[in-house]
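Page 47, continued from p. 46.
Same chain as before, 482 aa.
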Amino acid sequence: MFQSVKELTDAVKPAANVLSDRVSVTNAGAIAPDLVDKLAWTAALGADADVKGTARWVIRSLAAAKGVRPASIHDLYMAMGRGEASGFTVPAMNVRAMSYDTARAVVRSAAKLGAGAFIFEIARSEIGYTEQRPHEYAAIVLAAALREGFTGPIFIQGDHVQTNAKKFNSPERDKELDALRALIKEEIAAGFFNIDIDTSTLVDLSRPTLAEQQEVNVTLAADFAAFIRGYEPLGVTVSVGGEIGEVGGKNSDVHELHAYMDGFNRTLKERGASLVGLSKISVQTGTAHGGFVNADGSIRTDVKIDLKALEELSRVARKDYGLAGAVQHGASTLPPDAFDAFPRVGACEIHLATDFQNMVYEHPKFPADLKAEMYAWVREHATEERKPKDTEEQFIYKARKKAIGPFKRRMWSINEDVRRAIGQSLEERFTFLMRQLKIDGTAQAVARFVKAPQLRLDRDAEIVAAGGKITAAEKKAEGLAD
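Result:
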């Protein structure tokens, strides 16, 4: 890693001059792989906010110079709603562990297949336990794309910007809503131009009518959508998704879709007649986040997804509301032969997360001593994840995600040969999934419908996001030229 801003800026000089207000790229061909590696490590693990924030700013600047910029998938999804693009399901992949190596594996797979329609995402809960705030996450994703020679828009998504039902239904309600608004602002500032609003935790199935059951979900989702529209950068229409019912709960049906969408559109119009609505809708069709865990810690493979419901929900979402279709959650642990069904039934997006984490933990080359330490930490510090009837194996499987943040530096620092082997296994899985989901060749559709904005990149904002502050005197002391 770079230990100071001066060391960093000196190392970048063959490719760019780091000025006080911008990075002037003079020779994009001189952006060496080892330079990108050091910038990525510094962006995630740097010694202080100044050097971390500066590394993130430089990564963004170098990536933009190479044609790699965060973008919204909204216009592609609207084209899918009109029937002008179809036949594929966009994978939205949650990168939790060994994030740089994992993101590089995603990009290698996409580049190999000519894929452009893929999303990197991280959920509100994951931001906490993986210790990856949005500005860091975006910088690592962009560094991975830069490192692997990818060009084109990069879609970064805030997954499950979710209300905590317990906090909402308590005196902490205002604090909970303020926290979600703050997260949305932080995500948009970091380049998350795709945000999934999840207020489905507040659906009340005890109410007598569908409209009443969805009332709080609809109202809050419209409020958050209007809030998002108020913070969009110029030239960006954030892709906003809504959610009918909580994943892992009751399966969704078309009547609920109508109740949600009619209520949402009506409420959003009340917030502002010209506000842009949703691009997609998340539904529940029989899966669960993380999969269904057997007593021995293995995953059930006999999960029954209601593909007919998913097909009908997607069809109605497009026909009646102009959306891209329905979104499938909790799918990464399904058996391999399940994935080619999603493009066939018209699902517009599928969320994939836990299996990639599992592949890291269970890779034969993952250091056994490190895993033992992590599991010991879980037993001591993640007891809230243990349910009364859980076996030890079920508990470890469900709780080990909580060790990713506390052991982030250790996982990033695994021997390079081991990281390369894990990355190769991940790349093979991503390549398989992308082929099954039919996104090979979608770079052409993305180029046709999506324009990545050229936005001002702010070093000070990156430093502040990393937990620091910057003054003119500090800039001068660091040797940044005017």
